[in-house]
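lol forgot to send this yesterday, sorry. struct tokens for the thing we talked abt
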């Protein structure tokens, strides 16, 4: 388990929050992701205010680590395995071609 995940676990345990059910942590995570969306809209100037993406992404990230901890998942190890799988699944050459198609389509909008 990563140092960050261990620290999140300890933070919750010290406060008795390890008793919170994973379903509730998930709902809280969705709430925080909604706040990330709001900040992205601010960044795109669709909403007033100064974007605070760093804070909101940190909130969401901590809750993701908490959820993983509650479910007994070493999130860092799982993410590294997934990244390796993605590297094999999406080789550089074909990925760059797909990006060109995406950008060409995006420019049409």
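and heres what i got for the seq, position by position
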């Amino acid at each position: 388990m990563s140092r960050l995940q261990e620290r999140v676990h300890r933070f919750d345990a010290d406060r008795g929050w390890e008793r919170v059910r994973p379903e509730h942590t998930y709902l809280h995570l969705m709430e925080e992701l909604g706040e990330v969306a709001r900040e992205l809209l601010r960044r795109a100037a669709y909403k007033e205010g100064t974007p605070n993406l760093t804070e909101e992404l940190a909130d969401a990230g901590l809750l993701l680590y908490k959820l993983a901890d509650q479910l007994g998942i070493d999130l860092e190890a799982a993410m590294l395995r997934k990244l390796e799988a993605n590297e094999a699944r999406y080789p550089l050459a074909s990925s760059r071609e797909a990006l060109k198609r995406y950008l060409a389509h995006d420019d049409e909008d």
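The two ends are 44 Å apart (CA to CA). anyway ping me if u want another try
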